[in-house]
Amino acid sequence: MSAIRPAAVVVLAAGEGTRMKSATPKVLHELCGRSLVGHVLAAAGELDPENLVAVVGHAREKVTAHLAEVAPDVRTAVQEQQNGTGHAVRMGLEALGGAVDGTVVVVCGDTPLLTGETLRALAATHTADGNAVTVLTAEVPDATGYGRIVRDGSSGAVTAIVEHKDASESQRAIREINSGVFAFDGQLLADALGKVRTDNSQGEEYLTDVLGILREAGHRVGASVAGDHREIAGINNRVQLAEARRTLNDRLLTRAMLAGVTVVDPATTWVDVTVTFEQDVVVHPGTQLHGSTHLAEGAEVGPNSRLTDTRVGAGARVDNTVSLDAVVGPEATVGPYAYLRPGTRLGTKAKIGTYVETKNSSIGEGTKVPHLSYVGDATIGEYTNIGAASVFVNYDGESKHHTTVGSHCKTGSDNMFVAPVTVGDGAYTAAGSVITKDVPPGSLAVARGQQRNIEGWVARKRPGSAAAKAAEAVSREAGTEG
Ligand code: UD1
Ligand code: CA
Which of 189, 262, 272, 455 holds its CA 20 to 30 A away from the CA of 413? Predict the structure, then answer.
């Protein structure tokens, strides 16, 4: 490991990415829970380099702010004008004091599928072969837009990289392409970058020219062919972004399935790289799992659910639910059609039913909120039942207040709990109550208007109406029977 530990990794992230047609810089576009450059930095981090430098330029305030958030250890180097990949690397090296002893790995910020494993293999080959430069290449079905790897006809040695725009007809037929990932000898790289010219179709300093320069100076130039060409795909437009997202998602789901997760429909299941699973989880179609979401053993999620930063306990069931920053206890059930908002904590075997919204609330073991309710800013004890269509009235128009409901309570349907208020253990509340005062343990609270029946009102006030006739028929029948 230490033998291949690079002195530096330079990540190129200064380009605008015009082909994205976006106000967002290309390297900040997202797939599977990370930005393009975030994925590249994660792979680069696996090399454990002594220095990690990102070259920023276009929209550099945005990119730098993002880097500070996702990778605080990364240094940034500024490339004021995007004069090409060679120029960008020169700026990266300048931030490190000019030249570096040891291996310098260069990666592009727009190749998010690259793995740490592939980078390690490249660095190992580079060191083992004693190369001045080793380029990561791949055979691709469609090489359009990529730099082509030109090899010597007899020895097969790499002689140059020719950009698509500068390539001849016969060179364009080459399917082995430059991934944009290189390992260099740090001193030789700095020397060669000083010799790169701009006499090409784009008038830029091409990093790829370093290869030919080093070779002509008699240094060893090597290539390492990636096993899977999809890994080195560069993202230049949104079609490629969607393809890469699909590829990465498949990779993540395959890993989960091989670890014992049932994914009923991989085509409609989307996960972030940060999502984790235990064995015997089942994920139903149309489910999106984001952020730090974790599904414990035997949990079942979906269909049609979106869970972000949510922990689902063992054997829990979550159906047609949107959840954000919530904890679902073991064997709890949620949905269909529930919305768990931040700070929801459901105990073991708790139940959140249909058309129920919860927020900043702890709901104890075995407690049920089965139908059509809003529970906000509340603590509910164990084995309590909250009646249908209840609202925890937490907001007085200025601030939020807390409601506490004890254990083993039975609250009636259509209750309003006007916070701050406390319902004691074992208490009952009557249907239709507006609870504004604390309810002592074990009592029944009734807080609603008394019912008053005004007999004969319809016959007097709505004579001849269908209602009056219906009522009259009942009294006639009662008369004959009696
Ligand atoms: C580059 C390579 C090409 C390779 C391809 C792989 C060169 C000249 N070409 O082409 O051989 O097949 O990547 O995907 O190296 N960047 C800067 N500053 C610049 C220019 C670019 O930081 O002045 C960064 C971009 O942000 C991007 C990366 O370098 O992350 C590659 O730039 P891009 O313009 O996408 O190069 P390609 O044309 O794809
Ligand atoms: Ca590119």
Answer: 455
Question: Which of these, 374, 376, 358, lies nearest to 414 by C-alpha position?
Answer: 374
Nearest CA to ligand 1 atom 35: 236
Domains and CATH numbers, the chain: 8-232 (3.90.550.10), 253-445 (2.160.10.10)
CA distances to 8, 296, 324, 347 from 301, rounded to whole Å, are: 43, 11, 14, 17
380-436 residue pLDDT tens: 999 999 999 999 999 999 999 999 999 999 999 999 999 999 999 999 999 999 999
State the catalytic residue, choosing from 164, 219, 371, 401: 371
The closest residue, in CA terms, to atom 25 on ligand 1 is 15
Which residues surround the ion ligand 2 when the cut-off is CB under 5 Å?
110, 234
Q: Could you identify the atom of ligand 1 that is nearest to the CA of residue 37?
A: 30
Side chain identity at residue 93, one-letter code: L
Percent of the chain at pLDDT exceeding 70: 99
Is 13 annotated to bind ligand? yes
Q: How far apart are CA 161 and CA 361, in angstroms?
A: 60
Q: For residue 52, what are its two tokens?
A: 């990690």
pLDDT in tens, 327-349: 999 999 999 999 999 999 999 99
Alpha carbon nearest to ligand 1 atom 1, residue: 180
Distance of CA 381 to the CA centre of its chain: 33
Q: What is the value of pTM for the model shown?
A: 0.92
Pocket test for ligand 1, best of 10, 41, 85, 204 (most atoms within 8 A of CB): 85
CA 42 to each of CA 37, 70, 71, 115, 254: distance values in angstroms, whole numbers, following the listed order: 9, 10, 9, 9, 20
Determine whether 371 is an active site residue.
yes
Q: What is the tens place of the pLDDT at every residue in 456-480?
A: 999 999 999 999 999 999 999 988 7
Give the amino acid at 202. Answer: Q
Provide Rg for the chain, Cα atoms.
Answer: 33
Report the separation in Å between the CA atom of 119 and the middle of ligand 2, taken as the mean of its atom positions.
18
CB 124 within 8 A of CB 141: no
52 φ, ψ (degrees, to nearest 5):
-125, 115
Is the CB–ligand 1 distance for residue 302 below 6 Å?
A: no
CB neighbour burial string for 346-377, b if at least 16 within 10 angstroms, e if fewer: bbbbbbbbeebbbbbbbbbbbbbbeebbbbbb
Residue 141 identity:
P
Is 147 known to sit in a ligand binding site? yes
Residue 124 to residue 417: CA distance in whole angstroms? 66
Q: How far does residue 189's CA lie from ligand 2's centre (Å)? A: 21
Tell me the residue type at 282: V
